[in-house]
């Protein structure tokens, strides 16, 4: 695998993440009413309970656990645990809403070269970690190339300024 660069599999985007849940109703409520996902039609050929939701260009596929009573729920909010992260418009608004909804969360701050990224971490009903951040403040810089790349609106100008330079070098 060493030496492989680029996009050898021809990937185009993230389609969905799949999460197991103890209660479909609780999880649908959380992803729909807290995070703003929209339930969408799920193929009827599946022989197990679940739900599909879509939002922000990604799908969430919820899979009902057969024996939910045997699954422990994580209580500790650990930013180093596996999680999915969402960009937001206002960290203050997110914090206010979580406080009003009485959802426990932990805050973190990342700083790199004077650029600050605020993060809020909390759990879904099954203990899966959710991060909300203003991560597009921090440019994504590949280690193999010196061109800053990011899908954020804030860094889009950097990319547009660097593209002519890169094209002229080719």
UniProtKB/TrEMBL annotation:
Family annotation (InterPro entries): Glyas_Bleomycin-R_OHBP_Dase (IPR029068), Glyas_Fos-R_dOase_dom (IPR004360), VOC_core (IPR037523)
VOC domain boundaries: 13-135
Domain of life: Eukaryota
The protein's name in its UniProt record: VOC domain-containing protein
PANTHER family noted in UniProt: F18B13.24 PROTEIN, PTHR46142
PROSITE patterns, sorted: VOC
């Amino acid at each position: 695998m060493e030496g492989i660069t680029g996009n050898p599999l021809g990937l185009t985007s993230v389609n969905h993440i799949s999460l197991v849940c103890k209660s479909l109703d609780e999880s649908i409520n959380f992803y729909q009413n807290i995070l703003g996902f929209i339930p969408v039609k799920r193929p009827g050929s599946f022989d197990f309970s679940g739900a599909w939701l879509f939002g922000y260009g990604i799908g969430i596929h919820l899979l009902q656990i057969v024996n939910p009573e045997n699954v422990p729920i994580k209580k500790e909010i650990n930013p180093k645990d596996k999680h999915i992260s969402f960009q937001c418009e206002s960290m203050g608004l997110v914090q206010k809403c979580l406080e009003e909804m009485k959802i426990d969360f932990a805050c973190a701050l990342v700083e790199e070269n004077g650029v600050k990224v605020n993060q809020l971490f909390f759990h879904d009903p099954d203990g899966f970690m959710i991060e909300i951040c203003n991560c597009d403040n921090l440019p994504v810089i590949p280690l193999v190339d010196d061109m800053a790349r990011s899908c954020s609106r804030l860094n889009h100008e950097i990319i547009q300024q660097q593209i002519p330079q890169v094209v002229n070098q080719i």
